[in-house]
Amino acid sequence: MNIARLKNFTEIVKNNFNISATAEKLYTSQPTLSKQMKMLEEELGLALFTRKGKNLSGLTPMGEQVMELARGVVAQVEQIGQLSLGDQLATSGVLRIATTHTMARYKLPAVITEFSRRYPEVSIQLHQGAPAQLAQMAQNGDVEPSFRT
Prior knowledge:
Blueprint: H1 3-14, H2 19-25, H3 30-44, E1 49-52, E2 55-59, H4 61-88, E3 93-99, H5 101-118, E4 122-128, H6 131-140
Parallel strand pairs: 3-4
Antiparallel strand pairs: 1-2
Helix pairs in contact: 1-3, 1-4, 2-3
């Protein structure tokens, strides 16, 4: 069974059965997400959702049972990922962040504060610039690019 499909299933429920909103949150398309749910239902051999026309309106009784189990599976998978991540994280050193002025001013202060609280032995170097400047910093090796998917 595909764990990503189970995660998508739980996210759809979290988003009140709004596939478009869930797709946006998961950085995918609505048709892709709909197809994944159809594949999950076919794989399980049962309907998970109640529908009103083309819209999802709730969970079937079996869908409720699958949801309860899926939440546990997804939570356990996330815990495994945290174990792995926790083992890989350095607890001291330097974290170099290259970001735009807007992100540095509005988004990063709370994140940096929390990070510093959790990892007091890590010093943070913040490099601000326009996107072209940030690309140049990465190209020069002044910062390492990091991509979030």
